[in-house]
């Protein structure tokens, strides 16, 4: 494998903007962080992702592998990509992998949870075996796209934002990223809580709530209580909502949260990300 050890080009990434205040006077605030802060096994040195176009041959080979991705052939795919790292520039292969990975993740309809987990399992193997700069590069691209979507109306087209959060949540399950990132995303969604934000929060809890509970059950409880409080305030401040609609929303929110908590409880005895990787 060709070694390239240039100094990391640190870049703060924003998790979108939220608004505070009434009427036309609003204060914009951003949540910013350097992505290497949230990647486990932080890279001390790494090559920044090049801006030049990627190699068509490498890109085509990785795309072909992704098209055949399933749990049974992840180890074979990892071995093939490992060979690409030996034969080509590490920066080039990482760039191509990130491009194909993002293309697979960002879809207008919600990708299947199993497919998201398989994508993350492959990233986790590369992160552990090739180097943590791979996890850093993938996370950087995911968060940049997440920031873009959170700053756009309706958070992008269709379920693009949902797909991103599903994959990021699984990266936390597989211990590629740290819990601080998940908490920052939750706080961002709580700050600007709308019905859309509520849907995304429920998705996060259903996907990685069990891991949050394993690591800190009190944190999960606090998150759920915050969502309930913010949702209640949202209904009270929404003057355009009729009393009947407010009542229906107040009935729906506890049901969604209860469904999320049940999903978390059902998954507590399921294998963790580490358990699954041991079988690959």
From TrEMBL:
<feature type="region of interest" description="Disordered">
    <location>
        <begin position="235"/>
        <end position="280"/>
    </location>
</feature>
<dbReference type="GO" id="GO:0003723">
    <property type="term" value="F:RNA binding"/>
</dbReference>
<feature type="compositionally biased region" description="Low complexity">
    <location>
        <begin position="43"/>
        <end position="56"/>
    </location>
</feature>
<dbReference type="Pfam" id="PF02854">
    <property type="entry name" value="MIF4G"/>
</dbReference>
<protein>
    <recommendedName>
        <fullName>MIF4G domain-containing protein</fullName>
    </recommendedName>
</protein>
<feature type="compositionally biased region" description="Basic and acidic residues">
    <location>
        <begin position="263"/>
        <end position="280"/>
    </location>
</feature>
<feature type="domain" description="MIF4G">
    <location>
        <begin position="59"/>
        <end position="261"/>
    </location>
</feature>
<dbReference type="GO" id="GO:0042274">
    <property type="term" value="P:ribosomal small subunit biogenesis"/>
</dbReference>
<dbReference type="InterPro" id="IPR016024">
    <property type="entry name" value="ARM-type_fold"/>
</dbReference>
<dbReference type="InterPro" id="IPR050781">
    <property type="entry name" value="CWC22_splicing_factor"/>
</dbReference>
<feature type="compositionally biased region" description="Acidic residues">
    <location>
        <begin position="1"/>
        <end position="10"/>
    </location>
</feature>
<feature type="region of interest" description="Disordered">
    <location>
        <begin position="1"/>
        <end position="57"/>
    </location>
</feature>
<dbReference type="InterPro" id="IPR003890">
    <property type="entry name" value="MIF4G-like_typ-3"/>
</dbReference>
<dbReference type="GO" id="GO:0005730">
    <property type="term" value="C:nucleolus"/>
</dbReference>
């Amino acid at each position: 494998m060709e070694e390239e050890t240039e100094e990391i080009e640190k870049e703060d990434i924003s998790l979108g903007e939220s608004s505070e205040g009434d009427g036309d006077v609003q204060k914009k605030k951003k949540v910013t962080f350097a992505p290497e802060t949230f990647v486990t096994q932080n890279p001390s040195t790494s090559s920044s992702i090049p801006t030049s176009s990627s190699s068509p041959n490498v890109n085509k080979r990785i795309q072909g592998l992704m098209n055949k991705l399933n749990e049974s052939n992840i180890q074979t795919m990892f071995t093939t990509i490992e060979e690409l790292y030996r034969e080509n520039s590490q920066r080039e292969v990482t760039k191509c992998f990130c491009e194909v990975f993002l293309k697979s993740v960002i879809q207008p309809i919600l990708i299947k949870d199993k497919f998201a987990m398989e994508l993350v399992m492959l990233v986790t193997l590369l992160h552990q075996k090739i180097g943590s700069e791979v996890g850093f590069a993938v996370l950087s691209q995911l968060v940049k796209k997440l920031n873009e979507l959170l700053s756009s109306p309706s958070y992008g087209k269709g379920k693009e934002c949902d797909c991103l959060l599903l994959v990021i949540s699984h990266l936390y399950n597989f211990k590629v990223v740290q819990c601080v990132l998940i908490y920052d995303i939750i706080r961002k969604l709580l700050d600007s809580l709308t019905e859309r934000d509520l849907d995304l929060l429920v998705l996060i809890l259903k996907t990685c709530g069990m891991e949050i509970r394993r690591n800190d059950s009190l944190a999960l409880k606090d998150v759920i209580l915050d969502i309930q409080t913010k949702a209640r305030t949202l209904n009270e401040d929404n003057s355009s909502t009729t009393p009947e609609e407010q009542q229906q929303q107040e009935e729906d929110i506890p049901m969604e949260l209860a469904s999320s908590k049940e999903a978390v409880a059902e998954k507590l005895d399921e294998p963790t990300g580490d358990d699954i990787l041991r079988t690959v």
